Amino acid sequence: MEKLYGILKDIEIKSEDIDKKIEEKTKEILKNDGLY
User: Fold this and answer.
1) I want to staple 36 with a disulfide (CB 3.0 to 4.6 A). Which of 3, 19, 30, 32 is the partner?
2) pLDDT computed for residue 26 by the predictor
3) 18 Cβ neighbours under 8 A, 6+ residues apart
4) C-alpha to C-alpha distance for 36 and 29, rounded to whole angstroms
5) According to the lineage, what is the superkingdom (predicted)?
6) Continuous H helices in the chain
7) Measuring CA to CA, how many Å separate 3 from each of 10, 11, 12, 13, 34?
8) Structural domain boundaries of the chain?
9) CA-CA distance, 19 to 22, in Å (whole number)?
10) Full pLDDT tens readout for the chain, 36 residues
């Protein structure tokens, strides 16, 4: 059970990272398009 929790926690952290990267990329793209 502990191992599973660790894996889930790891996935959660990774998905947060992905969300942040997507957010940054989106802002970058909008800035380049002059929309932000």
Assistant:
1) 30
2) 94
3) none
4) 9
5) Archaea
6) 2-33
7) 11, 12, 14, 15, 46
8) 1-36
9) 5
10) 789 899 999 999 999 999 999 999 999 998 988 875
